[in-house]
Structures are given as structure tokens and as C-alpha cells.
Amino acid sequence: MTRAALLVLADGRFPAGGHAHSGGAEAAVKAGRITGAASLEDFCRGRLYTTGLVSASLAAAAALGADPVALDEAADARTPSPALRVAARRLGRQLMRAARAAWPHPELDALARRFPKGAHQPVVLGLAARAAGLGAADAAYCSAYESVSGPATATVRLLSLDPFDATAGLARLADDIDRVASEAAEAAARAVTDGVDALPAASAPLLEVGAEAHAAWAVRLFAS
Amino acid sequence: MHLDHSHDGPAAVSADAHRPDGTRRALRIGLGGPVGSGKTATVAALCRALRDELSLAVVTNDIYTREDAEFLLREAVLPPERITAVETGACPHTAIRDDISANLEAVEDLEDEVGPLDLILVESGGDNLTATFSRGLVDAQVFVIDVAGGDDIPRKGGPGVTTADLLVINKTDLAPHVGSDLARMAADAKAQRAELPVVLQSLRSEDGVRQVADWVRAQLTAWTA
Lengths: 224, 225
Ligand SMILES: Nc1nc2c(ncn2[C@@H]2O[C@H](COP(=O)(O)OP(=O)(O)OP(=O)(O)O)[C@@H](O)[C@H]2O)c(=O)[nH]1
Ligand SMILES: [Mg+2]
Description:
The structure holds two protein chains of two kinds.
Chain A: H1 4-10, H2 25-30, H3 37-64, H4 68-77, H5 82-102, H6 106-114, H7 121-131, H8 136-159, H9 163-172, H10 174-194, H11 205-215
Helix pairs in contact in A: 3-4, 3-7, 3-8, 3-9, 3-10, 4-7, 5-7, 7-8, 8-9, 8-10
Chain B: E1 27-32, H1 39-50, E2 56-62, H2 67-74, E3 83-87, H3 92-98, H4 101-114, E4 119-123, E5 140-146, H5 153-156, H6 159-163, E6 166-170, H7 175-178, H8 182-193, E7 198-200, H9 210-224
Bound molecules: guanosine-5'-triphosphate and magnesium ion (MG).
Guanosine-5'-triphosphate binds next to helix 1 of chain B.
Subunit structure (chain B): Homodimer. UreD, UreF and UreG form a complex that acts as a GTP-hydrolysis-dependent molecular chaperone, activating the urease apoprotein by helping to assemble the nickel containing metallocenter of UreC. The UreE protein probably delivers the nickel.
GO cellular component, one term (chain B): cytoplasm
Organism (chain B): Streptomyces antnestii
């Protein structure tokens, strides 16, 4: 196992398309729910314990070798907003390209063939971690961190927020990320024996509603 | 875990000259340059000049709207299914250089859905003088500047001006009105670019895009050779 691969996979510059997505931050900014560093941190904490936890669990389960098709269905079931499903699959497809270039692996090839237009991003992320020789906890960390780093960088652009304030907010979330990642890894281990219903299904209705509204805007900076 | 290095299936590599089915993919040409220099106008003119002889498609990268794609649709330079807009997340150069995944997806989908294609034009969102396309996304790139942006831009250089496969100095019709010295722009461009070609054009004139269209034809001949 090569722990350093986690740095490559979790790097914000890993070319997997994330830079064009705000993780719901653009809609939240427009709605007045994110107005500065403090509300950004609150937003991120909320996202982390809801969709972040779900994504991290899916990623961890994929890293453990759970059936990715069943995980993809579980992801669909946990994503009510059609716009978010589209975004998740698009990001999954983009991550797949980068992952196959970085860690060529027959299981990635098989998933790419099964979902030519993309599987849910967390499932691809978990399988990428697996191909890289990483474990379930690594995949969970990577996914949990992404669930907050995406909105934070997007908000720096959207509000011209001081980047140091945004980064300090991410640092303050470290304990929460630890908690979510370990909860996700435990759930994933249960899912391997008990099936995907053992995965958490926490949801953030405002993220779902906001994503639907955002998808209909004529002018926007981010794709989601 | 055991790593197996054999891989197959769709879309494993970006710059690969062949599609998964073994056929040669379309030539991809990028058009970049500052905001408003005439990228979309050049794309539209190229489509009109080439669409009867080639199977072509366009990808636009709009920064926060779909205006470029909508302009091309309105002008009906190509059937709508041959025009795709990519969203760039406030960072046009990232989408064409550092993280090209959304653009690669767009070109591959176009080839799948309306192919076979000979040529795909990829227009970047208007950006600064350092914005260049990744070689993983395009085979050749055109950098479009205009005379109204200041006649010292060729002298200032920068990656777009110095390294693009073709430099286009557009809107020459405006030179007298904005006090730009075309001879100086041409000489500065030559000094920056050595043997790389430069075209001065006005799309306001009849067949204004002819030199760029000829350059594209030459690229295509080399690509299919
Ligand atoms: N006079 C003159 N105007 C031109 C010429 N080429 C383009 N224009 C005009 O310049 C304006 C901007 O042209 P676009 O083609 O939209 O420029 P662009 O580089 O695509 O702009 P962005 O995508 O917004 O960065 C439009 O109003 C065009 O009609 C030209 O050769 N001469
Ligand atoms: Mg344009």
C-alpha cells in the first residue's frame, strides 16, 4: 500500500473536473446563505455531515470491493435532485479518465465500460483509491475532504473571500472530517456484509432544492 | 493490491490519435485569446468556409453564459447537434490547460453522436495572454488578438502570442480608427515568433477568414497524411 497515492488523489489539482463545480455554494451564495467566512464554514459543516458522509461511505465501500453497480444504484437512491445526479455522473466520468491514466486497473476499465457516461463520482473515487492501493479509510477521507474543499474554493471566487479565511475554516473542520471519515469507513465495512442498505442516507434538502434552481439559471459561474 | 497494467475500453487516453474502435479521431484545433478579440466570429467564419468540404463540430467554453454557443446557433453556422458548450467554473484557462476533462468529454461525445468528424474547433473563454491549450486537448492552436486591444500586444509576447501554432491579428479594418500601427504589429509578431505563421485579417471584408481557413486545411492534410 502506498499512502502517498492519497496525496495525488486528494490534490485539488488532480485533473478530474472538480474546478467547474461549487458543491452547491453558488446557489447558497445567491440565496444569501453564504455571505462570508463564518457562514461558509457552517455550510461546509452541514454538507460534510450529510452528502459528505453519504459520499464518503460510498467511496469507502467501493474501495473495499463492494459491487460498484449496487453502489451506483445506492447513490442514485440517495440523490433526489436530477441535476445533482447528472453532476455526480459527469464528475464520475471525468474522474474515471484521470484515474485510469494514473492507476490503470481492470476494475476501473470494467466500470468505465458499464457506465460510459459516468458512474456516481464517489463510487469512481473509491475504485480509484482501490486501484491506487489505498484503503477504505483513505477513500473516505478523500471524499469527505472534497465535500468541503470544493465549496470553499468556489466561494473564494464567488465572494472574493479572503483565501486565508476560507482555508482556516477548512482547517477548523479537521475534527469533523475525522469523525465523518471514520463513521463512513465503519458503514462501508457493514455494507460489505449486510448490503448497501447499511450505508447512511443523510440528506440536505436545501442542497437538493438549490441544485435544481441553479441548473435552470441562464447565467452562472459554476456547472453545479 | 495487484496492479494490472493492461487496460482497454472507452476513453482511456486524451491525446491518442485513435478512437476506441481504432478509427482516426477528428483533428482538434483550439482558438484562444483575450475577451472580444474575435474568436467566435472566426469560428463562425471557418464553419461557413469549411462546412461543405468537411464534417465539423464546435465546442465553446463560455465563462458564465452560453452566449458563444447561442451566437453560433443563431447564426446557424452548423446544425445544433454539432455545437456543444462547456462550463468552466470561472476559470477558462483551467478548462483548456490544467484540467481538460470536461472539454475532452465534449469532443468525444460529439464524435460519438454526430461523427465521423474531420475537425473539431474548440473555442476558449476569453482570457489573458498566458492562456494556452493543453496538447492533451488540441492538436494545434490559434491565438486570436485584435488591433483594438492595443498595438503593443505582439511586442509584449506571452505564451499565447509566442507559442501558438497560428497567431491571428484580427479586426485590421479598425486600425485607422484606433490608431494601431499594423506594420509594427506584424514586425513585433514576427520577432516574437520566428518561423511560426501570423495572419492579419478583417472579418468585415469579403472572405476575410480565407488565410486561416487555408491554414486549417493544411493542418488537416498533415493530420490525415
Ligand atoms: N470591426 C470588426 N469587428 C469584428 C471583427 N471580428 C469580430 N468582430 C466583432 O468583435 C466583437 C467580438 O467578437 P467575438 O467573435 O464575439 O469575440 P470573442 O473573442 O469570441 O469574444 P469572447 O468569447 O467574449 O472572449 C463582435 O461584435 C464581432 O462582431 C473584425 O474583423 N472587424
Ligand atoms: Mg467568443
